[in-house]
């Protein structure tokens, strides 16, 4: 990835983190075709500005799931933040809170749902669920998220198994080996009672977590049952086919995240922007769609919004920023906001609602 937001946090991450940790963060699956196309997807479109529009004031705020957010992006769920900085998710969540944009906490976070929820005062806190293959642990995670007051559940469905990431295989690296990503399990009463014993060493604990982390037998039906059983809105992450998007809508999901998991799951998975319009057409105008993968600049956000997204997720840029702790993440978020504001003005728009199809052209080549 060659594009940067503000300070070159990617370079800083590469220089300061171990090759193993940086490889894990930056890498994709298989031949990494999707990884490069996630960045290039935005270049197939050009923006057509309109002039003389009085753009001295620009408003980047929008509404998502009933909340006002300061800019149309959220921090993507990323596991294992303490491999980057000891303050981990607490720093990222505080930075999101300061920027007034939501933070989506991963199941494999290094601080628990309860600890992250404590540090978020203003912005929305979402919990991303990797559906454990043990139903009682899953149930316990959902009840804890409800009790902690999270805004919604994000269920990731593109990970029945982990994608094959050659960089990690070549390093024999798994971030849990650094003690990261286990907090939600270690703090869970059901997990503790069922899987932990005082004589266990850390290798055994990790093995227990990994043995239940993913669930290849998940179906629409099971997700529908969960939707019915919780008071929280459920958003489904990792959908790329319009018919799947429609099924998510039909089973009661409140929105979906159009995503190829930052090109880390299916090798050669299609770029999210390529399927966005068809998904929007299928689900209608009133169903929230969030796009992620390769968002690096304000113009990428504008193109996503024009093609049908209500908001986007930002992944790697902020996790690289976390090498500078909370202020590093804040720097990434404020640079992105500034870039979005400047580009809205240059487009001739005073708000994100002003971004329309007549501002966009898809290139033939
Ligand atoms: C290091 C890393 C860890 C990730 N961990 C998770 C995770 O725990 N849960 C999840 O749903 N997605 C996870 N993702 C995927 C992101 O939520 C998001 O889809 C992706 O990073 C977006 O692409 P971008 O990094 O190009 O912005 C992870 C991505 C990265 C880079
Ligand atoms: O790295 C990832 O993308 C990811 O989602 C993950 C989750 C759990 C274990 C390992 C990787």
The percent of residues in helical segments reads 40-55%
Series of H and E elements:
HHHEEEEHEHEHEHHHHHEHEHEHEHHE
- What's the CATH H-level homologous superfamily? Aldolase class I
Strand order of the largest sheet: 4-11-10-9-8-7-6-5
Description:
The chain is built from 16 helices and twelve strands. It is an alpha/beta fold. The chain has one domain: Aldolase class I (TIM Barrel, Alpha-Beta Barrel), CATH 3.20.20.70. The strands form three sheets. Strands 4-11-10-9-8-7-6-5 form an eight-stranded parallel sheet. The protein has a two-stranded antiparallel sheet with strand order 1-12. Strands 2-3 form a two-stranded antiparallel ribbon. α12 packs across α13 (272-283). The longest helix is centred in the last third of the chain and has 23 residues, at 325-347. It is globular and about 70 Å long. The relative contact order is 0.20. Mean pLDDT is 97; it is low at 1-5. The site of flavin mononucleotide (FMN) has 24 residues, from β11 and α15.
Nutshell version of this structure?
This protein has 365 residues and is of the alpha/beta class. It has helices spanning 9-16, 19-26, 33-40, 88-99, 113-119, 135-147, 166-171, 183-186, 189-195, 202-213, 220-229, 242-250, 272-283, 298-306, 316-321, 325-347; strands at residues 45-47, 62-64, 67-69, 73-75, 103-105, 125-129, 152-156, 234-239, 255-258, 289-292, 311-314, 360-362.
Attribute tags:
single chain; 365 residues; alpha/beta; TIM Barrel; 8-stranded parallel sheet; two-stranded antiparallel sheet; 16 helices; 12 strands; disordered N terminus; binds flavin mononucleotide; binds benzoyl-formic acid; EC 1.1.3.15; FMN binding; (S)-2-hydroxy-acid oxidase activity; Aldolase_TIM
